[in-house]
Write a structure and sequence with these properties.
The complex is a heterodimer. Chain A is α/β, with parallel strands linked by helices. Chain A has a domain at 65-370: Metal-dependent hydrolases (TIM Barrel, Alpha-Beta Barrel), CATH 3.20.20.140. Chain A is built from 14 helices and 18 strands. Chain A has helices at residues 84-93, 112-125, 148-154, 169-181, 204-209, 217-233, 245-256, 267-271, 293-305, 320-323, 340-344, 346-349, 355-362, 364-370; strands at residues 8-18, 23-32, 35-40, 52-56, 61-64, 66-71, 96-101, 129-132, 159-160, 186-188, 200-201, 213-214, 237-239, 261-265, 310-311, 385-395, 414-424, 427-431. In chain A, the strands form 4 sheets. In chain A, strands 1, 2, 3, 4, 5, 16, 17 and 18 form an 8-stranded mixed sheet that branches. Chain A has a 5-stranded parallel sheet with strand order 9-10-13-14-15. Chain A has a 3-stranded parallel sheet with strand order 6-7-8, sandwiched between helices. In chain A, helix 4 (169-181) packs across helix 6, helix 6 packs parallel to helix 7 (245-256) and helix 7 (245-256) packs parallel to helix 9. The radius of gyration of chain A is 21 Å and the shape is globular. Mean pLDDT of chain A is 93; it is low at 435-447. By secondary structure, chain B is an alpha/beta fold. In chain B, 40% of the residues lie in helices and 14% in strands. In chain B, the strands form 2 sheets. In chain B, strands 7-6-5-8-9 form a 5-stranded parallel sheet. In chain B, strand 3, helix 4 (117-122) and strand 4 form a beta-alpha-beta unit. In chain B, helix 5 crosses helix 6. The model of chain B has no long low-confidence stretch (mean pLDDT 92). Chain A binds chain B through residues 202-204, 206-213, 215, 279-280, 321, 324-330, and chain B through 15, 89-91, 93-94, 112, 114-117, 119-120, 134-138, 172, 175, 198-201, 203-204.
Chain lengths: 447, 320
């Protein structure tokens, strides 16, 4: 059977995990063409029709494909670090079927042609579905508002100045107000830049290493300011990659007040702390910086309580020349797409959260924030699926990444949870379960 | 064979060294102090060996001190001053390491404006590396020469009360010094305005003072640090005038210290900024010139021990 035009496929013998419906149990899924035709605990009862291909999931988890709401693309502009193709391949290897990309490419996604370029390139590659954020300000300069209305019509899901904070309070106020005109969300990198001149978390470790520190207060102050501006404007505010205990508290308070405020974090911030910087390891130089152990634990608690709505990979690919430098000169950011699921599953394996809740933060959680019809298993929806073994142990080897960049702070880390197959629009785009190349594990349907 | 008491290939910092290792370096330095005071100041301990001074930051004193140390040991010395202003300075660092490997040096002395850069270089070269100062991180030979100066004057380090005053935040000298002094059982106070005290430095075992008069009370040693002029124009300190008023070492403040307290400064001094000339030139108590003298001896000891430790490693590599 041609892989390019899928017919009917029956996924049997799966543990179906669908956070949107709250279902987690043995189940079966039938897809036809690009869509999910049916889903249930006993669809086939052994009677699969002859025109249907059968995929035996062997008891593995079948979940909606992951929705990664914070990915840095380097195309256009820095294709030597990452192209849409390499990012797409990395994403499907990580079980990500939808990714939302930051506008900090070169040129910046602050006008329709650039947005349309990215969308068109992504469609041609037919890997992970790519959506874009639009820039809040022209050229990410933090001064003049970009054409958010038109960008939104062209497909921008929400608006952000990417890795730069919208620092000027008046600009942020107007951005929230203007975006609210069209019901659009502003995504902030919450960091007061005048306090953030350092290269790692401020504190004893930075002092020992002689590195300049970024205090936690840089994030805390910006969040508190932004919450006030959100209350003042009635805007829709989302804080990206929160990293401190106080941030969790601030967001919780804002939600309690009924403000339209949400947030996400990245695996770095619930699985690592500042000790990972160790001997000046530039792969652990991230923005925001890795914080202390109390902060890490508070981020875990925030995910558990639901204050943190989503987990995003915060994928920031960098080539060797940007990282093989003295620590103060090295670029900020870590590769994240291919470790997103496995590292997030630490939350499950450590007993912090049930599996379905971890998957929720990776699928329906972010999809809901962005108004995407992805991240759930529903009849008539596009068949974007991931099949994974939650227990399989492996070791992260960055050199084996599909991504062009190998700058993972998780390199060498033993993890649990392996993506076996990624399905987009009914079609297997990544497969180590065995279907695409080696049909040995496929049981031919018997009439 | 590696030196059994100091079995290291590099000296990247004081952090991690044991009291026995530090004493070993100081004892060997004492030996070279005697040699340096003899009319015939030559040893052939490192005859035929190559020492490279690789400086990514301007330095006259430290480089000259290392150069003289290497020459007195009979080694060949080359000085490389690398401009670090170019954007591609990081690439230069790794590229330089590769280039230097081809020259088969025995020991590299490296100074770099970025913390951790010397360690990065040490990971890439085949020879021994001495940290000649990296960013705000460490400057181990300065701490050793300060310790040697104190030990020779006071007969010990253990139990002494030492005040380190000035720009601790940006100072690699301060870090290496208090790490060494604490390891050797001294008590250390740091004295500075809040803007120049590193975050959570108290967790490293030092006592923090912001009042110089209180901080100098009964100390055995007063170590002054240089304050860079560009930090004195409103960013960290309002003015030189104000700084000198509160944190400059003068007779009045010094009166709080023990009568036999020593005055130290890593140089170069800003007279009238952090130290009064009257105090700096006090014959009885200022050991600033002695620090410079002992610096050469300490660097001889360090170069000798590291060059010999690396000799066998390189011989094995050449054979394989």
């Amino acid at each position: 059977m041609s892989v390019a035009k899928p017919g009917r496929i029956a996924y049997i013998n799966a543990r179906v995990v669908d956070p949107a419906s709250g279902f987690d149990g043995p189940g079966e899924v039938l897809t036809s063409g690009q869509e999910i035709l049916d889903i249930g605990s006993k669809l086939f009862d052994g009677k699969v029709s002859a025109d249907t291909q059968v995929v035996d999931c062997q008891g593995m988890c079948l979940a909606p494909g992951l929705v990664d709401m914070r990915v840095q693309l380097r195309e256009p502009g820095e294709e030597h670090k990452e192209s849409l193709k390499s990012a797409g391949e990395a994403a499907v290897a990580g079980g990500v079927t939808t990714m939302v990309c930051l506008p900090n490419t070169n040129p910046v996604v602050d006008d329709e042609p650039t947005l349309e370029f990215v969308a068109r390139r992504a469609r041609q590659l037919a890997l992970t579905k790519v959506y874009c954020y639009g820039a809040v300000t022209k050229g990410l300069q933090g001064k003049e508002l970009a054409e958010m209305g038109l960008l939104s019509k062209a497909g921008a899901l929400a608006f952000t100045d990417a890795t730069r904070a919208i620092a000027d309070a008046q600009v942020m106020r107007r951005a929230l107000q203007y975006a609210a005109t069209f019901g659009l969300m502003i995504v902030q990198h919450p960091e007061e830049p005048t306090l953030a001149g350092g290269v790692m978390n401020a504190g004893e470790i930075a002092t020992r290493m002689g590195l300049s520190g970024i205090p936690r207060e840089a994030e805390i102050i910006m969040l508190e300011r932004d919450i006030r501006l959100t209350a003042m404007t009635g805007g829709r505010y989302h804080a990206a990659h929160i990293s401190t205990a106080d941030s969790v508290e601030i967001i919780a308070r804002a939600k309690k007040q009924g403000l339209n405020v949400t947030c996400d974090t990245a695996p770095f911030y619930f699985s690592l702390n500042e000790l990972a910087v160790g001997d000046y390891k530039t792969f652990a130089k991230l923005s925001p910086p890795l914080r202390n152990e109390q902060d890490r634990q508070a981020i875990v608690a925030g995910l558990k309580s639901g204050v943190i709505d989503a987990i995003a990979s915060d994928h920031a690919p960098h080539d060797q020349d940007s990282k093989r430098l003295p620590f103060p000169q090295a670029a900020f950011g870590g590769s994240g797409l291919e470790t997103l699921l496995a590292v997030s599953l630490d939350l499950f394996h450590n007993g912090d959260m049930p599996l379905i809740e971890v998957i929720r933060r990776l699928t329906s959680g972010p999809a809901k924030l962005l108004g995407l019809e992805a991240g759930r298993l529903t009849r008539g929806q596009k068949a974007d699926l991931v099949i994974f073994n939650p227990d399989e142990s492996w070791k992260v080897i960055a050199d084996a990444f599909k991504s062009k960049s190998k700058n993972s702070p998780f390199d060498g880390r033993p993890v649990q949870g392996r993506v076996l197959r990624t399905v987009i629009d009914g079609r297997a785009v990544y497969d180590v379960l065995g279907a695409a190349q080696a049909p040995a594990r496929l049981t031919a349907a018997k009439a | 064979m590696l030196n059994p008491v100091f079995p290291h290939r590099h000296l990247l910092g004081i952090e991690g060294l044991s009291p026995a290792e530090i004493n070993h370096l100081l004892d060997r330095s004492d030996y070279y102090v005697a040699l340096n005071r003899a009319p015939e100041k030559m040893s052939d301990a490192l005859r035929g060996r190559t020492i490279v001074n690789l400086f990514f930051e301007n330095s006259t004193r430290t480089r000259t001190s290392f150069e003289l140390a290497a020459k007195r040991l009979g080694a060949n010395v080359i000085n490389m001053q690398v401009e670090s202003s170019s954007v591609a300075k990081g690439e230069t660092l790794i590229d330089t390491a590769v280039t230097l490997n081809a020259m088969h040096p025995d020991v590299l002395v490296v100074r770099h404006p970025d913390s951790g850069a010397v360690k990065l270089l040490a990971d890439k070269v085949n020879c021994g590396v001495v940290n000649g100062g990296d960013g705000s991180h460490e400057h181990p030979t300065q701490a050793l020469l300060d310790a040697l100066t104190i030990r020779r004057r006071k007969g010990k380090l253990n139990g002494l009360l030492v005040a380190i005053c000035g720009d601790v935040l940006h100072s690699r000298v301060a870090r290496s010094n208090f790490l060494l002094l604490l390891t050797m059982g001294a008590r250390v106070r740091i004295i500075a305005p809040r803007t120049l005290i590193p975050s959570q430095v108290d967790r490293m075992g030092v006592e923090v003072f912001t009042d110089m008069t209180a901080g100098l009370k009964d100390v055995d040693i007063v170590m002054m640090l240089r304050v860079q002029n560009e930090r004195m124009r409103g960013s960290f300190i309002p003015s030189v005038r104000e700084y000198f008023h509160f944190f400059g070492l003068d007779r009045a403040k010094l009166a709080q210290a023990k009568p036999d307290a020593l005055i130290m400064h890593p140089g170069p001094m800003n007279r009238g900024t952090e130290i009064d000339s009257d105090v700096a030139d006090d014959f009885e108590r200022s050991v600033i010139r002695e620090q410079v003298e002992l610096g050469v001896a300490v660097r001889m000891a360090v170069l000798e021990i590291l060059a010999l430790n690396n000799r066998d490693v390189q011989a094995r590599k050449a054979a394989s």
